[in-house]
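Please produce the structure of this protein holding pyridoxal-5'-phosphate.
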Amino acid sequence: MSLIRQNLQAITATIVATVQESGRQPESVQLLAVSKTFGPEAVQEAAEAGQRAFGENYLQEGLDKIRALNDAGAPALEWHFIGPIQSNKTRPIAENFAWVHTVEREKIAQRLSEQRPEGMAPLQICLQVNISGEASKSGIAPEQVAELAHKVAALPNLTLRGLMAIPEPADDFEQQRAAFARLRTLYEQLRADGLALDTLSMGMSADMRAAIFEGATIVRVGSAIFGARNYNKA
Ligand SMILES: *Cc1c(COP(=O)(O)O)cnc(C)c1O
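Below is the modeled complex.
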């Protein structure tokens, strides 16, 4: 059995066990396979093992992979953009991805909405929140989330689904949970405020279990599926 298939099975088993351990509904957590830096063959292998949702951080790399997988006649895959967005690069994102997890500015959201092709389903959106408050991290400040969320929810060709965060790495499980709990609290406030959200995109290879305990509905997992990344290879 291929290593990618083995890893997918192991992660799926961990997700199922953690969902149960935390008292949540079965199937309430979706696995997003983060394939950045890995080639189309790796995605193909994961697709053959049944994985359908893939996350990409770098636009050109993602577009090349989407094209390669289409050409290879892969089953219909769902592509999520999870990297930083430059405002002059919104059109290919709007045209080629099903989801965007990293919206943090109104202007970007407006462009994505305007550029979403007619006839495609609305682009599914998460707002990225800077939950750890580090100066260098991307994401909107927690106190600004509500205003942006209401603006994005009103745009015609987008569907605001929820919030996303990449907390500061922490080894300690309780520390990991505390950061995810802050995102969940914000999410619950927005829902109480009338926004129909259903998505908390949080948790990666190293902190997926803590995220599930705090209500993650999408975990974004890369290295635990595909192996360690080598950024110098390309
Ligand atoms: C790379 C990346 C991931 C996956 O990280 P791993 O630690 O490899 O699981 C998840 N989310 C985002 C936004 C990423 O950039």
